[in-house]
Amino acid sequence: MFWNCNQGSTATLPLNSDRTDGRRLRALIDQATGESLDESDEHASLLSTVRAEVACPFRARLAGEEVECVRLEFPRNGYGLNAVCKANGKTVIVDISKLEWVEPLPKGHQWIEAYFAWRDLIG
Prior knowledge:
Blueprint: H1 19-33, H2 39-53, E1 58-62, E2 65-73, E3 82-87, E4 90-95, E5 99-101, H3 109-122
Antiparallel strand pairs: 1-2, 1-5, 2-3, 3-4
Helix pairs in contact: 1-3, 2-3
């Protein structure tokens, strides 16, 4: 892992985060990236885990409109995770952070949360 495990101004998890939730997310990140050699490798490992563990399709909202996320994919360049969504006969590809979650959450949603936590950690 390439993140700081100490509490404080450079901590990987915010001081005001729920410690149990933070530990749970950190354990998921560790599980997905334990064999990683660097940050780029961590990203690829985590995204591979997200794609394997999150059940698609699932319902979400995009700009207030209900969409169906049919798959998750790597971005063409750089870090990120794209959601391929369909609504009203159109297909759009957006960064997953643009989605608003609706119940029921997709199976494996905790891996998306872990991805968000990892992304926050690397800045």
